[in-house]
Specification:
The structure holds two protein chains of two kinds.
Chain A (H helix, E strand, L loop, with lengths): L8 E6 L2 E6 L5 H14 L1 H4 L3 E5 L7 H15 L2 E8 L2 E4 L24 E3 L8 E4 L3 E3 L8 E4 L3 E7 L2 E4 L9 E6 L3 E4 L2 E3 L13 E6 L2 E6 L1
Parallel strand pairs in A: 2-3, 3-4, 6-8, 7-9, 8-10, 9-11, 10-12, 11-13
Antiparallel strand pairs in A: 1-2, 4-5, 12-15, 13-14, 15-16
Helix pairs in contact in A: 1-3
Chain B lengths: L3 E6 L7 H14 L4 E5 L7 H4 L10 H5 L5 H4 L1 E2 L6 E4 L12 H14 L2 E5 L6 H8 L3 E6 L3 H16 L4 E9 L1 H6 L5 H8 L3 E6 L3 H8 L10 H13 L14 H10 L1
Parallel strand pairs in B: 1-5, 1-6, 2-4, 2-5, 6-7, 7-8
Antiparallel strand pairs in B: 3-4
Classes of the chains: A alpha/beta, B alpha/beta.
Chain lengths: ~220, ~260
């Protein structure tokens, strides 16, 4: 019997679904081979289950995560719902519901390219949220937290940390928040620091966007 | 009867974790609860100094965990209160001498015997923090009204939530009401708004704290001290008693009047 620790990928069953923990020193090919074998052996067992990928001990690139997800979808119609990146940061996978939403697995859509990343909690100092499309934060972004998105950023709360919209160079990206009082704002290649002194409190919300090669904040 | 394990943490150093542990622990012991205080700051112990028990240390936390002594041998009884004990940290060892799992076991054992187990967490978010937090069900986050302390408190709250510890309360220490009124210091409301965790109490800035620390007698023994009274109220709230939050005008006499009128 091979010890569980030496497998390229540990599969742990839990209440929320299965947690996948890749071995720190296993190659990506061996992980893929192992998962392919494991899924084909017991296809019904993993059928349509929710998978959480735990990357706290081993890093995987976004293309590798995508390849793994494709394999899961193809063989078991299972899908990654969440990727744990560090102790205090986990990302819901694009287009899928975050696990805290408590969505039933039957209505679990398979991940769609380009769906927004939704974070259903306050982003505290030290947290870093990255999205390859848009990003929605249901809570505040506190000083010391970073939100980076290739598309727009929408914060249903106060934005006090760092936000970078259009991170891949999209200059028409915008940042919405109920209140924008950040450490720093970035849109595409531009960086802005809020002026010193107090500003009027917004009645509804604020939008940051690029106008004439500078980032401006409009209070609505 | 199983007790309660409470960790007192802050992220930043020097905001008053040890003072908080000493005073809350002493107050609870005065209320006839059995209390044990654990100094988890291995390598930089100072809870014993604040409690005035420095010269009685024979064994320490690491000795218990390594099985070099029985738990009772390392527990030092307070000079005034018979139901208050402290377990000192080791001065000559490093933080990695203890593992989170071992702390969990130790806390579980202590909870069998004591009503309250209070853990004094070291500053920082490394191994020592993980050890201190491992066995706790409740966390008290101490901050001062300074931007740097609040930033660290925010980070620590995030880490506590990630460690599945959701019973988190905030203590604001060293608030200077005069400076808040002049607009030179962040107010209680600003801090609570930012950190978004329930407030357990506010301790005013006071010179008494330095005096009591140097003498090794917790503030709550001194009846005239405002900071001591604030700590007593915090301990009462922690114990589930209904004490209104009016320590520092956060919700003063008029606040209560308003509530009375509206209710």
């Amino acid at each position: 019997m091979v010890s569980n620790d030496s497998l390229p990928m540990q599969v742990k069953a839990g209440r929320e679904g299965f947690t996948l923990v890749p071995h720190p020193s296993a190659s990506f090919d061996s992980i893929m081979d192992y998962m392919r074998r494991r899924l084909s052996e017991s296809r019904d067992f993993f059928h349509r289950s929710n998978m959480i990928l735990d990357l706290r001990t081993r890093h995987l690139g976004s293309d590798e995560i995508q390849a793994l997800n494709n394999l899961l979808v193809e063989l078991s119609e299972a899908g990654l719902v969440e990727v744990k990146i560090s102790d205090d940061l986990s990302m819901s996978v694009q287009g899928s519901q975050h696990k805290r939403a408590g969505s039933p697995s039957s209505s679990m859509p398979s991940p769609v390219e380009g769906g927004p990343v939704i974070v259903r909690s306050t982003c505290r100092s030290g947290a870093r949220v990255v999205s390859t499309s848009d990003c929605v934060i249901l809570g505040d972004v506190n000083p010391g937290a970073e939100v980076i998105a290739a598309g727009d950023i929408i914060v249903f709360g106060s934005l006090r940390g760092v936000a970078h919209a259009g991170a891949t160079g999209n200059r028409s990206a915008r940042i919405w928040a109920l209140s924008i009082e950040p450490n720093q704002l970035r849109i595409a290649d531009l960086v802005a620091v809020p002026p010193r002194g107090s500003k009027p409190t917004p009645k509804r919300y604020e939008i940051a966007e690029i106008t004439e090669d500078a980032i401006g904040v409009t209070t609505v | 009867m199983a007790g309660k394990t409470i960790v007192v943490t802050s992220g930043k150093g020097g905001v008053g974790k040890t003072t908080t542990v000493a005073n809350i622990g002493t107050t609870l012991a005065k209320k006839k609860y059995s209390v044990v205080l654990i100094d988890a700051d291995i390598g930089l112990r100072n809870l014993d100094v604040v409690m005035g028990l420095e010269n009685r240390i024979v064994y320490n936390l690491v000795d218990i965990i390594e099985g070099k002594c029985r738990m009772q041998q390392a527990m030092i009884r307070d000079r005034k209160l018979a139901n208050l004990y402290i377990i000192p940290a080791a001065q000559t060892r490093e933080k990695n001498a203890v593992q989170p799992e071992q702390m969990k076991t130790l806390c579980a054992e202590l909870m069998e015997e004591f009503d309250f187990v209070l853990i004094d967490c070291p500053a920082g978010i490394e191994q020592g923090f993980k050890n201190a937090v491992a066995g706790a069900q409740t966390a008290l986050v101490v901050t001062t009204p300074e931007v740097s302390a609040i930033r660290d408190a925010d980070r620590v709250i995030g880490l506590l939530e990630a460690a599945m510890l959701h019973d988190i309360h905030l203590i604001i220490n060293r608030l200077n009401q005069k400076m808040v009124k002049k607009g030179d210091m962040m107010s209680t409301q600003d801090i609570v708004g930012l950190l978004a965790v329930p407030l357990l109490g506010v301790v005013p800035e006071s010179e008494d704290v330095v005096v009591s620390t140097n003498r090794g007698i917790p503030l709550v023994h001194d009846r005239g001290s405002r900071a001591g009274v604030a700590f007593q109220r915090i301990a009462a709230r922690l114990n589930g008693e209904n004490v209104p939050l009016d320590d520092n005008g956060a919700e003063g006499f008029f606040g209560r009047m308003k509530r009375f009128i509206w209710s």
